[in-house]
Specification:
This protein has 275 residues and is an alpha/beta fold. It has eight helices and seven strands. It is globular and about 50 Å long.
Length: 275
């Protein structure tokens, strides 16, 4: 029995925002899922630091910053470099205080037939999706431990991490690694009362899907848009997900409502993967 973990936070009282005054760091949140979750976190009372690679925020993120200047900050960062990650954490903590939540979302995608996939593709995918994910998680967890925060880490995996795909070997393997790191980190952090979970989205209609669809068209001899339509129809609920479909799970796993949940990766995919 673990007698050393700090007590978990009490659930929010009726009418109280679920993430009131919590400091959340979100990576890869210039658009798509990350931006949708940032909007949801702000609506639940969180203070949000958004990190992305671009020197300046996207137009959509700039609009969100203009609407929430006291509760939202943007910090450019290269999560594949430890020095940049440490600078990110330092700037985030200086603005909003110690971390309570990490939404670890930054990732890249590419694909090719296995025998045509080169070392550069492998290194780029694993550099961001695995090493970058780990560096941000490690430094965020250190901040939570140092400050005695019973925080929550949410690592973004994928349904691709649940099974291999012939054209998507590196990306599938990188997301399987995210699921594995989530489980290991959860066990390591349990004595500190810090929870580490993951979310595995299915096919989500983000700007990245234009790139994905074009790659499938190239390698499978399809017409533009054909793969995107097919994968949407194959989802049991009959459609691709929207970025906002991930927000509820992200709020739940960040809040006291999931205080007894750790080491899990939640499928949010319209029923595509069952476990």
């Amino acid at each position: 029995m673990n007698n050393h973990a700090p007590p978990h936070p009490l659930p929010a009282s009726p009418g109280m925002k679920r993430l009131a005054a919590k400091h959340a760091l979100l990576t890869g949140a210039g658009g798509g899922i990350g931006l949708a979750v940032a909007e949801a976190y702000l609506a639940e009372g969180a203070l949000c630091t958004i990190a992305d690679l671009a020197p300046q925020p996207s137009a959509a993120l700039a609009d969100l910053l203009a609407r929430h200047p006291e509760h939202l900050a943007y910090i450019p960062a290269d999560i594949t470099r430890m020095e940049s990650v440490k600078q990110l954490l330092g700037a985030a903590v200086a603005r909003f205080g110690p971390l309570d939540i990490l939404f670890n979302n930054a990732a890249v995608f590419d694909m090719a037939p296995l025998l045509e996939s080169d070392q550069a593709m492998y290194e780029r995918i694993f550099d961001v999706n695995v090493k970058g994910m780990f560096l941000v998680m490690q430094q965020s967890l250190q901040n939570m431990v140092d400050n005695g925060r019973a925080g929550s880490v949410i690592n973004m995996a994928s349904q691709a991490g649940r099974r291999g795909e012939a054209l998507v070997s590196h990306y599938c393997a990188s997301k399987a690694a995210v699921i594995s790191y989530t489980q290991s980190a959860a066990l390591a952090m349990a004595p500190h009362g810090i929870r580490v979970n993951g979310i595995a989205p299915g096919v989500v209609d983000t700007p990245m899907w234009g790139h994905v669809d074009a790659l499938f068209a190239r390698y499978e001899g399809l017409q533009p848009g054909e793969k995107k339509r097919a994968v949407g129809l194959a989802v049991p609920l009959g459609r691709m997900g929207q970025p906002s479909d991930l927000a509820g799970a992200a709020i739940f796993l960040a809040s006291a409502e999931s205080a007894y949940i750790t080491a899990q990766t939640l499928n949010v995919d319209g029923g595509s993967v069952m476990n």
